[in-house]
Amino acid sequence: MAQDTDDILREVTSKEYAYGFVTDIESEKAAKGLNEDIVRFISAKKNEPAWMLEWRLEAFRLWQKMEEPTWAHVHYPKIDYQNAYYYSAPKKKPTLNSLDEADPELIKTFEKLGISMEEQKRLVGVAVDVVFDSVSVKTTFQATLKEKGIIFCSFSEAVKEHPELVKKYIGSVVPRTDNYFAALNSAVFSDGSFCYIPPGVRCPMELSTYFRINEAMTGQFERTLLIADEGAYVSYLEGCTAPIRDEHQLHAAVVELVALKDAEIKYSTVQNWYPGDKDGKGGIYNFVTKRGLCLGERSKISWTQVETGSAITWKYPSCVLKGDHSIGEFYSVAVTNNRQQADTGTKMVHIGKGTKSTIVSKGISAGFSNNSYRGLVKIGKGAKGARNFSQCDSLLLGDRCGAHTFPYIESENPSAMVEHEATTSKIGEDQIFYLNQRGIETEKAVSLIVNGYCKEVLNQLPMEFAVEAQKLLAVSLEGSVG
Amino acid sequence: MTDPKATVLPLLEGSTWPDAAEALAQVHALPVPTSKTEAWKYTRVGKLFNQPYAAPKGDVNVALPARLPFESTRVVFVNGHFRADLSDDLKRQKGVVIDSLQHHLAHGPVKVHYGTLAPTSERLFTAMNTAAPTDGLILLVTKGVKVERPIHVLHVTTSARQLVQPRDLFMLHEDAEAEVIIEHTALDTPEVFVNSVRECVVGEGASLTVHKLQHEDNGPASISFEGVCVTAKGHFSISTTTLDGALIRNEVKVSLAGPEAHAELNGVYLLNGTTHCDNHTYIGHDVPDCTSDELYKGIVAGKGTSVFNGKVYVKQDAQRTRAYQSNANILLGDDAKVYTKPELEIYADDVKCSHGCTIGRLDEKGLFYLRSRGVSEAEARRMLSHAFMTDVLERITNEDWRKHLASLIDAKLEAL
After folding, report:
1. Residue A160 has pLDDT above 70, yes or no
2. Which of A244-253, A465-474, B315-324 has the largest mean confidence?
3. Which secondary structure element, helix H or strand E, spans residue A433, and what is its range?
4. Distance between CA B81 and CA B95 in Å, rounded?
């Protein structure tokens, strides 16, 4: 017999984060608080050239003049920016020749997460740039990539080795003045990934970065810059898990993508940061600015995200479709449970002629959570024959959660076609009954229906991620029968 | 910096209407919305405060337009002032009060309901209206009474640069029924600012149907607010047709406060010139088992701008809610603009809510089909445009009014 609905609900709502643990690694910290000296300290720690420091300082000054935005449909206590550490790095070790020399604690962490480097190294086709508390510890498969002329390294390395590329593109998609959190990130970003695919090269493997937030009370400020030159193709994966912490942790990353003529970038994210316990205590604040610029003709940027973690998610991966006939895509599954809050969506800004965009967003809310889709589709005056299709569906599991949709649609060109549709409903009792009748217990039935509901998005994920994402969905919602 | 409201403040002082003093204090406290005010993001109202206005005069001679081509009770307001001499006999039916609201301010039901559905605390324009209403219509229908003929409220604006603030209060008691046609018309009266507020209380099992027609050639800026409360099994329906105007903002806020209440909001707009039309709706599903249905459709030509912002709010425990919302636009002019924002905010789980919106052009295949059968291009476009509006028009149950509206729409389509 199927488990009683209430029992299942209780079990789920009391389910604590399975990946919570703390790795005890000595870390090097900057002093608490934020001022120009801290910015200088971070820059000095990374041996950055003067122009980079100047860029950071300017961002810091801009940030000081800005105000924290309040328009999102999320609520949280005011963040004290002076009561956080802005830099923490695993203590410097001599350069490693093999994995054996790496900190055994670190290796253990990855093993617990099921992404041990040993395994990752052997995993054909995946190069992992491991970001552990802000600093790249180990980069694999670099040689294979080098052959093709692909640059895939940590951001700080890129600042030193490829300053011309960094200088040219940093802040070109997300300017420092873009928003409060982007400015903050620009001032204090610790590290991140940098990737450049030369003209005509098809990246032979999925590039991926695992993010971890480890040190208590450490804000993590990643910065990713991805450039696909003319005719290049790259698929990039990003995934995250983080240990249990009582203190709220702020994560304000910036991701910039640039696609030149005929280039294609596929960016996939599976996000499973610590969402806080069942009473909403702790958890990560995920305030991320992600934006792609389709600069050249016929370029394409595709975002796929599966968001299950974080106490608060505030994230809008966007596409600026500047090149004629460029394409932007956004596929998203956002799951919220317990006291989680998510305000996520996308912006598609059509500037070039014949530009196309597709938005498919699936929100699932359970427990006491709130899940909002907020999106903008803007058709500029010159975007002749532009086309957009958006679909935003919400599924409600439980009568104490909320699902909201805030789409903004603006069209200034008569030849453009824009369609938007959204639905909100709960899982059909008839569907559950149908599956029960065929001997499938309620919990499995819900999982089946949810998976089917998300299929459109999950299908967009690369193989490696699709499996993980499905597992995550099952864990996040196990038994949430409304 | 001087307060931009200084241009209207002299006209708002010294009113004897209820709550006027508090409202005036609110006018002082509330800022003029800018494009940074979320609710006014796409509609700029700052320019309304750029010039001084005169107080509206009611005792002027006007040539009234022809009567509607069907039986109706006509009530005339000139520049916001009630004109008994131009109106029909308003006392022909027992149990129905149709009169100037100003004459009834001391009466029980007015005292109970006045101001309850149009709070002055947040919206500057509501505060302005409450501070000094010009006059308005009271409609009171007692228990079980069905108003025999549609009430035709005709608002005529005759001269330029005045601030008119109509204030209506409609109260339908249990099982009452009424249909009201509200027509705003003006001929070449630029820079008039019409700021109206209407409160509608729909009692248990009552049914109120409102048709709004806006055709104010080179006309006033029209900012309106309808606060509606529908109790159990009540039925409220409003259809707004916008054909001409300068700056138009239609706000409808419906609260479904009793089980099985139903609200239907329909809109048609045909914009050309520089007409800016903003339909702003809010439907609050406060209790279980209510339904709402919204359909707004329009064609935007020339330098017209259409804004649609619809919000459906489903309160916690408002189970078995059914809410539908749809907005479709056809853009014709190169300088035409459409901004649409259909929102859902839902805190109950057993709901079926959906919204959809589209922006596009006339169907090329349809045009080709008609052309291949010898229909001229202009005629084919008109046919398709008319067809596009049909599903909104079909929701209007009063057949006479529907036919009249269809002919007005066709005439406007000729002009596009």
Report:
1. yes
2. B315-324
3. helix A429-437
4. 24
Q: Where are the domains of chain B?
A: 4-258, 364-416
Contact between B212 and B250 under an 8 Å Cβ cutoff? The reply is: yes
Query: Is beta strand A264-272 parallel, antiparallel or unpaired with respect to A300-307?
Result: parallel
A-B C-beta contacts closer than 8 Å: 117
- Residue identified by tokens 């439907």 is B283
DSSP structural state of residue B281: E
Q: Within an 8 Å CB–CB cutoff, is residue B283 touching chain A?
A: no
Q: How many C-beta neighbours within 10 Å does residue A24 have?
A: 10
Q: pLDDT for A358-396, tens place per residue?
A: 999 999 998 889 999 999 999 999 999 999 999 999 998
- Count of all residues that appear for chain A in the document: 482
pLDDT of residue A76: 84
For the segment B102-123, the average pLDDT, to the nearest whole number, is: 94
| B338 contacts on A by Cβ (under 8 Å) | 409-412
Report the C-alpha gap between A193 and A184 in whole angstroms.
18
Q: Report CA Rg, chain A.
A: 22
Residue that is written with structure tokens 């009540």 in the block: B234
ipTM of the complex in this document:
0.85
- Tokens 């299942």 found at: A8
**How many whole angstroms separate alpha carbon A153 and alpha carbon A168?**
17
Choice between A205 and B20, residue whose per-residue pLDDT is larger? B20
Least Cα separation, residue A198 to chain B (angstroms): 39
Nearest to A376 by CA among B42, B44, B45, B282: B42
Q: Three-state DSSP class for A143?
A: helix
Q: Give the pLDDT confidence score for residue A7 in this predicted structure.
A: 56
Residues 6+ apart with CB under 8 A from A319: A291, A292, A293, A294, A301, A303, A328, A329, A330, A346, A347, A348, A349, A357
Chain B residues in contact with A399 by the CB 8 A cut-off are 316-317, 319, 348-350
Q: Which of B42, B41, B415, B48 is nearest to B243 (CA)?
A: B415
Q: What type of residue sits at position A352?
A: G
CA distance A270 to B309: 33
List, as ranges, residues 61-90 from A with C-beta within 8 Å of B. 71, 73
Confidence of residue A214 (pLDDT cuts 50, 70, 90): very low
